[in-house]
Write a structure and sequence with these properties.
Chain lengths: 327, 335
Amino acid sequence: MAEKTYREALKEAMTEEMERDESVLLLGEDIGVYGGTHLITDGLLDMFGKKRVIDTPISEAGFTGAAIGMAMMGLRPVVEMMTWNFSFIAADQIIQNAAKVRYFSGGQVQVPLVIRGPNGGGVQLSAQHTHSLESFYGHFPGLKVVAPVTPADVKGMMISSIRDPNPVIFLEAGALYGTRGEVPEGEHTVPFGKARVAREGSDVTLVAYGRQVLLCERAAERLAEDGIEAEVIDLRSIRPLDEETVIESVRKTHRAVSVQEQWRYYGVSSEIAAIIQEKAFDYLDAPVERVSGAEVPAPYARNLELMCFPSEEQVVEVARRVLYQEV
Amino acid sequence: MAIRETQRRHEALGLDEDDLLRMYRHMLLARRVDERMWILNRQGKAAFVISCQGQEAAQVGAAYNLRPGYDYVYPYYRDAGIVITLGMTARDQLLSLLARAEDPNSGGRQMPGHFSSRELNIVTASAPIGVQYPQAVGSAMAFKMRGEDGVVLACGGEASTSEGDWHEAMNFAGIHDLPVIFLIQNNVYAISVPENLQVAGRIVDRAAGYGFPGVEVDGNDVLAVYKVAKEAFERARRGEGPTLIEAKTYRMTAHSSDDDDRRYREREEVEEWRKKDPILRFKQYLHGAGVLDDAKEREIEEEIRAEVDEATEYAENAPYADPESAMRYVYAEEE
Ligand SMILES: Cc1ncc(C[n+]2csc(CCOP(=O)(O)OP(=O)(O)O)c2C)c(N)n1
Ligand SMILES: [Mg+2]
């Protein structure tokens, strides 16, 4: 297997799908000549031409709606949101329409649409470029929502997303586009609704997705120095959610910490905590805890920003707390 | 003969020599601060820069009609020329650039270029494109409801007119004859996307669709912009409703410090536009009109350099906000 960046994995998946299936096309701001502001589509205009790599005006509602119309006609559009933050402008199209067309047509019409782009923050772009939208989009039946973190999963989940007959919200870890990992060549799909055990351990379960998986892996290494073996679960798929893998892990470790970049209230971590207490209550030796972003719009100044996102130290500290090892 | 004709241009607009020199200083200060910001970025001291370069004439020409602290402005991220005309300083810009506690816009919370001042009625700019226009129209409605003659200046680039919010705001303003001026600085690009992939038809023509006048103006000619803006402000103050101004200009720098514009535009094109630099043009006018000579020009340059140097030093030494303060201003604080 070759080592590739997150960015390359993403492009590879889209390129292979565009080669395989003529109905796949890309739309978004600056994705053509420029190759995308994060260079995800670099070179694709030359390869596939401007009928399939379409530079849109700055009209998120407009081009998302247009993509829904294309998808209903049998095309397979992949829409780039320059960042997910701009998807609020297109929220009606996504939530009220893409997510409902199949249901409200009694199953007659489908919307095989992928919307992708960077999600989350940590790179000093302040609050209006920094939202983490997993629970926001994860809330709505009719949408599938994924947030992969390894380049291999990025490729596998993008291919699965393009082939899926439903609208898929593809949340990329924008801060990690340059990170590397092994990526299988050619046909490689990763199914929805299947979590990944990123690290095995028996003492405490750390549940995360996206960028926070790496944070948990680093925290797990620190804990290992003190003889604590943390299991790290990468959810990958937010909706559908793999409850089984989480429950199985908690049955083994009896303790869990759920980590997310987004705010504490009404987040994915709250969902994880609820599922654990519903399905593994008798196995728990401590309350399930959450590590989340501070309850404030993400500030710009680096020192303030760092205060507002979950840190390795916090994860270590909370893991110790559920193990009743006060620090 | 040519000289006397140029002289008449400002006189006909009711501008005296002091006005001209003030306008020139605002433009030059905006430019020199901007250049300094790029240097600080290259030195690794500033994480993000977004520029006004090339658009100073459009900004200062329009803003010179504002009554600071009375009229309202919804600037966009390039509008350093507007906020400087209203009274913001080099220090203010640099404190914001370096995200210090004293940053007057947001205390280090918002990105640079997102101006905000309660005192000057500068409404905090939003990072998502185009969302300012409906709000600007609401402010104009408030002026009208209170029977005041305030005017709202709402600004954006040509690509902001692709957003639904812009059209909704134009329609609302047209229905209620509101005292709002839509100032569109058409600098040909939206990051990499050129005007021909962004704008169907002509922006200026769209005003007719909403029932009020649209005027196109050479955005690199500060007096031309001042003239059309003056008419628009007078119209608004008379209660006759909105105006759309499309100022044709050019973005002289990359989109921002995160961009490499060599990926999508030819150097020759940039060089051609540099010859039409609005500051150069105004300077030539001022020389022709006898308002500026070489000595005076140097004197102004030096004053501005000193101001920018002082501001840089001040901002670099200014403290960051206390991390604990990050939690403030999310909600109203208890008395
Ligand atoms: C809703 C939204 N979509 C996309 C962006 C990303 N973006 C920031 S500036 C910009 C270009 C804007 O072009 P224009 O309005 O012409 O202004 P200019 O930067 O050229 O002055 C884009 C696409 C954004 N900030 N908000
Ligand atoms: Mg533009």
